[in-house]
Input
Amino acid sequence: MRIKKTSRLREVDTRNYKLLFYALLVGLISGILSSLFRLILSYLNTLKIAFSPDRLNLDWLNWLWPFFFSFLAIWFSIFLVKKFAPEAAGSGIQEIEGALDGIRPIRWKKVLPVKFFGSIFSLSSGLLLGREGPTVQMGANVGKMIKDVFKQSEGENNPLISTGAAAGLASAFNAPFAGIIFVIEEMNGHFKFNFYSVAALMIGAGSADMIVRLMVGGGPIIEITIFTFEQLSGIWLFVLLGILLGFVGFIFNKLLIKSLDFFDKTKLNYITVALLLAFAITVVGRFWPDMIGAGYDTIFNVTKNSFTLQFLLLLFLARLVLSVISYGSGVPGGIFTPLITLGVILGMLFGGLAQYFFPDLVQDPAIFAVAGMAGIFASTIRAPLTGLALSVEMTANYELILPLIFTAVTASVCTAVLGNGPIYSILLKRILARNTH
Output
């Protein structure tokens, strides 16, 4: 009896050690894919700027070149998704949650190339989409690929797919801790929690981040002042900001679903959708470039006090509408970065007003911009810990943890009271309902 028990324990240990080794492979491959993804996006953006009409002094191409580029990129992105892998549309995170529950398939042989190339084109077009959704879905598909290649049991699906998702988020933002927290918090109902599965997350996220730092570069993704926080008497302002962001998160989720429903019901063909989106992006981008794109440049300009409060309000409203339209069109791309950008804009607007009315309590309005990142993430994704970790890792503002906690928890509680569910759970239910019909 003792011999059988010892043999069984050795078998369990061997399986667990294999899991950690496979997690390392998932992290390394995900890191390489994400690095290539980011490098190609950066190169295309440089190429687009180099051949812009302003650089070439060709006035007649001021509208035609950006429109043509955006149209082709959007059309090809939609074509790839609709033709070969419909589950690659949007961020794909809801698909990963469904796969962890065993109710959605992972077809990595189709999804990996479609998501990679489709997202490169959609993100290069000027649409308001983020790279984190694609990298998370690609990472999770790498986890399934490793499981299939090494012929592991179906029970290994959950930890390896989860590890890939953590690695994907870590490599998108140079934020390994946020990648780990995201899987544990956002996917808590889907992730099988034990010592070795958490260790696998850590190995996958850490190794992916290491590869990205080697191939792309390290440091915070968002360049912003490193703040200290000493005005404890003004902590109530962050609670007030959290309440505001709770309402914004509720509105954003409702508009996102309505946008998806609109594109589904209208049954527009690929060319029509691409033409309309390209026209909108070209016109808006020509006059107000900060209103299009993922938002990294916009965040930099906003936090440098480059805009008036009136323009910040207009910028927020425009990016809110364009973000839900971009996602609703069905092209591959994430919502984290557009959301974070909205949080920064609204936080900066709030901070500017707070500084005007309470100058003694506000050290710098940009502190509220960082808090806005955490708060809007908490109110839409309903993952306050992930929002907190992302905001700190992306800006290196570790000393702002206290006000960020107040903002994030207030936003998440407020949006829950309003009846706002986590956006990815809503999206997954929507997919399942459509498939049933």
